[in-house]
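User: Can you predict the 3D structure for this chain?
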Amino acid sequence: MNLVGALLVAVLIGAMLPLQGLVNARLGVHSGGPVVAAFVSFLVGTAMLGLYLLATRTPMTLQGASKWPAWIWAGGALGAIYVACFTLLIPRIGAAGMVCLAVLGQVTASLLLDQFGVLQAPKPVDALRILGALLVLAGVLLVVAPWRSQGAASKTATQSIPADRQ
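Assistant: Here is the predicted structure, written as structure tokens:
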């Protein structure tokens, strides 16, 4: 896949995130809450990945896993926390606000992880990268607009959803 193709796939994958959050939030309403919805989401995802591994006959090596550092398993825990919190917060913040705030957190944490070389070679943060992060912050403020009254917008949005879709 060339660079343009990879960039387009990245955008499409990113476009799926708010839909996943909305689907999981609705699942949480029907299933017992955001943690149940996150569990079901991971269960379905695990089943799909398992089927993919079987279909492609991908070799899986867990030999020596007991000797791996304990932190190596944190990815699954971090993903579960992310999905559960996303599912909990998206009905309160909205899809656009939640994605923007998540991206702000990702950019900020990524710059810190790059600067200090956490689990990779350090990549120093320069003025241009900080400017990029500030532009992300400006975008978040414009999308989330915390100075606007949220009560009227939320009430109108809730009233406009047909009962069979809630």
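Residues 95-147 form one domain. The radius of gyration is 19 Å.
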